[in-house]
Amino acid sequence: MLVGAAVLGIGSLGAVAQAATTPAPPVTSTATADITPGTITLSSAPSFQFGTVAASANDISYTSTSTSGILDIADAGTGTGYTVTVAASPFTATGGAALKNAQLLLDNKETDPIKADDVDNVSTPPTLVANLSLSSSPVTVVSAAAGSGVGAYTGTYGSTDASLKVPAGNIGGSYSSTLTWTLANAPA
């Protein structure tokens, strides 16, 4: 009987009630980052080639046969917005002859004419103006409102996205125009 009581006593020792534990309060800390904005850059722009074409006795429009280069814009975290303009000098030949009243037109037919270089870019992309008539006065080709257009973007033109309208009465020759692409660090 004593053995039974001793066993019974040992068994009851394990059944001592334990107080409920309360979880320790959470510990907080911080992570900080001071991100210094960089600059906005325009590092490249496209050129358009029309190749060798036959002169015409009438008004004629030539379509570009190739495009080289891309429109490369990057805003390294400023968020101030920007515009890119383009102006075209008159078409002139090596000897100085001018292609009188010629008009250079850009008609961007690309499905996605300007896109972020990084697929996970969270900024609203800038806007590329698809149809432009170029002259010596700058016209806006890309614009980003304040808070948008942050990150690196590429604007592309297809091989046939430019046209050159030449009025009748011009003399044949090897003509060229200089396109001046200008970045203005100002919102659209």
UniProtKB/TrEMBL annotation:
Signal sequence range: 1-19
Domain WxL: residue ranges: 24-187
Record flagged with keyword Signal: yes
Keywords: Signal
Biological source species: Companilactobacillus paralimentarius DSM 13238 = JCM 10415
Top-level taxon of origin: Bacteria
Alphabetical list of InterPro entries matching this protein: WxL_dom
Name of the featured protein: Coaggregation promoting factor
